[in-house]
Amino acid sequence: MIPGLTHMRWLARRGLEVCLFCAVILLCIALYVFWQFSGDDIDFPVDCAVVFGAAVHKGSVPGPGITRRVETAVDLYNKGKVKTIFLTGGKGSEELESEAAVMQKVAMRMGVDPADIVLEDQARSTWENLQLTAPLVADCTSIVGISDRYHLARIAFLADMQGWGNFRTLPAKRVPNPLFETRAAFREALGIVYYSLHGLLTLF
Prior knowledge:
Layout (H helix, E strand, L loop, with lengths): L4 H31 L10 E7 L3 E2 L3 E2 L1 H15 L3 E7 L10 H11 L7 E4 L5 H8 L9 E5 L4 H11 L4 E5 L6 H24 L3
Parallel strand pairs: 1-4, 1-6, 4-5, 6-7
Antiparallel strand pairs: 2-3
Helix pairs in contact: 1-6, 2-3, 4-5, 5-6
C-alpha cells in the first residue's frame, strides 16, 4: 500500500517536530557545558589532582591540551595546593607513548617530584579515565579534576554516574582558540547525550 499525500505530510511534520525537539535538547545541554566552564568552588589545599589526557602529537610531542592541563596542575603543586598529581590517559594506535607518560615528562620538566606523580595509562575515554583512576585515588580525601573548561561538564556528569562523591572540577588556566572550543563544547554535549541514553538503556 502506497501512503497517501496526507499521510506523507503528517509523517514529515512529525519528523520535523522530532528533529526540532532533539535540536533544542542538544542546545540546552551545550548551554550547560558552557555554564560549567568555570568549574567548581574548591577549598584548597586538596590531597589529589586528576589531570585528564589529551592529544599526543607525532614523536610523543605533547599537544597543547596536555600542556595547558599539566601546567595548571603543576602551578597548584608548586603553590602547595595539591599534594599528589594523578595523570590519566592511554595510548592511541599511532602513538608511541601513553598520554599519561607524556604528561609525566611535562610535569617533571616543570619541577614535580616523580614520587608525587601517579600514572593511569590504559584509559581510552573519559569514562575510563574516571573508572580506572578511581582505585588509585581511594586514599584521597579531597580531589580536583583538571582539564580544559569545555571538558568539565562531561567529566562532572560521568563522575556523578560513577559515584565520585568528593570530586570537584577546575579548568586549565589557559584556553584554546574560540572556534576550536565552541566545536569541542558541542561534541561534549553529544557525549553527554550518548552516556545519558546508554545509562537509560541499562535500566531495561
